[in-house]
Design brief:
- The complex is a heterodimer.
- Chain A contains 18 helices and no strands.
- By secondary structure, chain A is mainly alpha-helical.
- Chain B has two domains: 46 residues; 308 residues, no CATH class.
- Chain B is built from 16 helices and five strands.
- Chain B has a five-stranded parallel beta sheet, sandwiched between helices.
- In chain B, helix 8 crosses helix 9.
């Protein structure tokens, strides 16, 4: 059941009508049941797995908080990390690990053939595991006190709007909203409706239609010409953004309708001038998680010499491997880690140049940086989207050495991308320059009306209803 | 004279003016209701402009005339919509309904008013009952054979409003057809909801027109543009080998579920016209002679006759004209490498026979 399907619409309408009738306690009960149905619609067996994770985290958090002995506290924390990462590691990385170990041993002359298991990856496992782990970490650090109610905690992890693809909410942000009564006012409904509509537009119109340009090129075994690869990479840059951002907007909108405030996960990332800014704007909940639970514990900015660069690299490698068991993700993570490190090295020089050239020229420089960094991001997306390293390399080689642009082949997809991106680019620009993600809601009524009407009409005519899952479901 | 751009500009101007006034003077619920009203006016106007008038459908058919931009089925549906808006005053005596074979037979004459769709199945016939009734024909011609029983059909292009008196049929059909098409329960729920959605929002159903027009201009294969391919064979022998394989597939692999809903559809259709005193002439369809003699086809034809006899047993308004009573079409009457559709010569021969021997004769 995906947000962009009529089945989900029916499901949510039933849940929402009941939700509005119930009091706080029953609302939580209803949401927990609804979340189980929502998740169980993919595969009910993985519900059990999710509850194993939930129960372990709940018990470990209680154990951590009830003990004053540091060793016991550490023991509970260790159990929690071992179980959570054990489940994640088995379902997500087992075959990758075994396959690579096999290859390594063969390489050094010790051929051992391990059995590769047919493991189905549970939907959203990376998201709910990280969310649950952050709860125990925060209890351990004394940032929050653990909840006494198992069911409320279970709802914190399984709450369906953000269960399968985030945002990864911290307990201090979401748990109080579960524990305390929520108000659903007319303003919530307006805001929620706005975010859901925007998310549906981004997903069903933009991302799913861009997928039709991207998929054939990346899934082809025969090499494409460089010009088509380049178009597919640009298209993928926007596809993955609008796919994930659309999901996050819908999650936020659904939360708003029920009186929850789910955090913003994207903040116009393609307007970033450098990698640091990019990671403050892209998948904010994951980058915040990595910063708080990986980067800072490693030493953060405080280390001497090369330590900071090592921390950046390790953090981004974790971020890369979090996306999936494939060397492409590892390299993508390393690529971003390297960009962050290089940016850190040249940051003082950049600031010096900015001061020296005056404000007008600096503005041009900023625009240049945005364009340049967008293209660097696209290099990352090529690695990220390619099924294998070899294919990523051959596609990059096609762009560099076999470009061959042909009008008949390249112009139609470019026009199509422009057509799809027209309204989103207006919205993004307005959001960026007002620094307000809801700026559209403040526009004059007539302008908003025509914008919404155009979006709705395009969505109805060109939208792909429920035909494609969200990209981040596989992570 | 209907000037589409001018109408749209006026509409936009009018609604914008209303919205500016609302923005300035209305507050709270009044504002909300007025905005909602504007949205309703816009929706109704757009639907009237782009879907519910007689001028746009010929335009769509004209723009989308080349193959590849939309599917054959969508193209046939456009042609039917175009015909739907043709004046009903000058009633035609004969109304034919069927698959693309009917199109091939009647496209070059004006005595028979017809509607068709690619691979039209018998269970789809009831969706045309209102359309046929509105034209008051004295005879309804159906051109069908075992060939039509092996079509999959599709109910997704039709509207619920095509069946105003027949909701029970719709529920029966959906209850039986959707499970045949969609295997999982999720798929069934989604398909049912999709059918409801596309009936409430026909713009979604006709989204293929906008996609097709864009395809027409820039041939965008990401929008399902398919470069039309014609079947080519080196010799008649090759063609026959292909037909042998294809016939086996065609006549033997269709489930009994489809046959059952097909016969029920035909029964419903005949009963409808029986109650209204309209004669249904059931012409047994023909196809390429070589295929008709294949064992699979002969077996399917026997079964077709047996099952049809059961359906026609209780009806008194049907005249069945078997192949033996008809002019038999030969190889020269079919298109090149086409085993289903007659060519111009074949159509003329068949029509001459039809009007001289069948449609003039009283029952």
């Amino acid at each position: 059941m995906v947000f962009n399907s009529l089945q989900f619409l029916l499901f949510f309408l039933i849940v929402y009508l009941l939700y509005l009738r119930f009091n706080h306690r029953w609302q939580n009960c209803l949401l927990l049941i609804a979340s189980c149905i929502f998740y169980g619609a993919w595969d009910w067996r993985f519900l059990l797995l999710m509850f194993v994770s939930v129960t372990t985290d709940f018990v470990c958090a209680r154990g951590v908080s009830q003990s004053s002995d540091p060793k016991v506290r550490k023991l509970f924390l260790g159990i929690n990390i071992a179980v959570s990462l054990g489940i994640l590691g088995f379902f997500k990385y087992f075959n990758f690990f075994v396959g690579n170990l096999d290859a390594l041993l063969t390489f050094i002359g010790l051929p051992v053939h391990f059995t590769v298991l047919q493991i189905v990856l549970p939907v959203g496992i990376s998201f709910y595991t990280f969310q649950a782990m952050s709860y125990v970490f925060d209890v351990y650090r004394g940032i929050i006190t653990p909840t006494r109610s198992y069911w409320d905690y279970a709802l914190f992890v399984t709450y369906f709007p953000h269960l399968v693809a985030g945002p990864i909410m911290k307990a201090k942000d979401l748990l109080p909203q579960i524990l305390n009564p929520r108000k659903v006012e007319l303003s919530n409904i307006y805001r929620g409706g706005y975010f859901i509509f925007l998310g549906l537009f981004q997903k069903m119109l933009v991302a799913d239609n861009l997928a039709k340009i991207v998929d054939p090129v990346f899934s082809s075994t025969a090499p494409y010409e460089g010009s088509m690869v380049l178009i597919a990479v640009y298209a993928f840059a926007f596809q993955i953004y609008y796919d994930f951002c659309g999901y996050s907007h819908m999650a936020r909108g659904l939360g708003q309708l029920m009186g929850f405030d789910i955090i913003i996960n994207f903040n116009n990332p393609y307007f970033s001038r450098n990698p640091r800014e990019f990671w403050q704007r892209w998948h904010i909940s994951l980058s915040t998680w990595l910063r708080d639970y990986v980067y800072i514990p490693l030493g953060g900015n405080k280390g001497k010499g090369l330590t900071v660069y090592r921390n950046l690299l390790v953090t981004m490698l974790v971020g890369g491997i979090w996306h999936g068991a494939n060397w492409t993700y590892v390299i993508w993570g390393a690529f971003h880690g390297a960009m962050l490190a290089i940016h850190r090295i040249f940051m003082p020089a950049g600031a010096f140049i900015s001061r020296g050239i005056g404000s007008v020229r600096d503005r041009y420089l900023q625009v240049l940086c945005v364009i340049l960094f967008f293209h660097l991001t696209c290099v990352g997306w090529l690695i990220f989207r390619a099924p294998t390293i070899d294919q990523a390399w051959s596609m990059a080689a096609a762009v560099l050495f076999n470009f061959k642009p042909t009008v008949m082949k390249t112009i139609p997809p470019i026009l199509w991308i422009y057509f799809l991106m027209f309204i989103p680019s207006i919205i993004e620009t307005a959001q960026r320059y007002s620094n307000n993600p809801e700026i559209i809601r403040q526009w004059p009524l007539a302008v908003r009306f025509w914008l919404y009407a155009a979006m709705a009409y395009l969505l109805i005519i060109w939208g792909q209803c429920g035909s494609q899952e969200f990209i981040y479901f596989q992570f | 004279m209907f000037n589409l751009p001018l109408v749209i500009v006026l509409l936009v101007f009018l609604i914008t003016l209303i919205l500016v006034m609302i923005d300035r003077f209305a507050q709270g619920y009044v504002r909300f209701i007025l905005v909602l009203l504007s949205a309703v006016i816009l929706c109704v106007s757009l639907r009237a402009i782009f879907l519910d008038n007689s001028l746009v459908w010929p335009a769509y058919s004209h723009w989308l005339r080349s193959q590849g931009a939309i599917t054959f089925q969508q193209s046939a549906h456009l042609a039917n919509r175009k015909k739907h808006f043709q004046p009903k005053g000058d009633n035609q005596e004969f109304f034919a309904l069927g698959s693309s074979q009917v199109n091939a037979l009647f496209k070059n004459q004006d005595k028979v008013f017809y509607m068709h769709n690619l691979g039209l199945s018998l269970f789809e016939y009831p969706f045309f009952e209102q359309e046929i009734l509105a034209r008051h024909p004295t005879k309804v011609l159906l051109y069908l054979s075992e060939f039509d029983l092996s079509e999959r059909g599709s109910i997704y292009l039709y509207s619920i409003k095509d069946l105003p008196d027949n909701m029970p049929y719709l529920f029966t059909l959906c209850g039986r057809y959707i499970p045949l098409e969609a295997r999982s329960i999720h798929q069934r729920i989604n398909d049912s909801l999709m059918a409801i959605y596309e009936n409430i929002v026909p713009e979604a159903k006709y989204g293929f027109i906008a996609r097709g027009i864009l395809n027409q201009w820039i041939k965008l294969d990401v929008l399902n543009y398919v470069e039309p391919k014609k079947l080519e064979f080196k010799s008649t022998k090759d063609f026959h080998t292909y037909l042998r394989r294809f016939a086996k597939q065609r006549f033997e692999e269709r489930s009994s579920g489809y046959r059952q809903i097909n016969w029920e559809g035909l029964d419903h259709f005949i009963s409808f016209f029986e109650r209204r005193g309209t004669e249904v002439v059931l012409l047994e369809g023909q196809y390429y002679p070589f295929v008709m003699t294949l064992p699979e086809a002969l077996k399917a034809n026997h079964q077709f006759h047996d099952e049809l006899t059961l359906v026609l047993r209780d009806h008194h308004n049907v005249r069945f004209v078997s192949r033996q009573e008809q002019v038999l079409l030969g190889i020269q009457d079919y298109g090149v490498w086409d085993w289903k559709h007659v060519n111009k010569i074949g159509a003329e021969r068949y029509n001459d026979y039809l009007f001289s021997k069948v449609l003039t004769r009283r029952r």
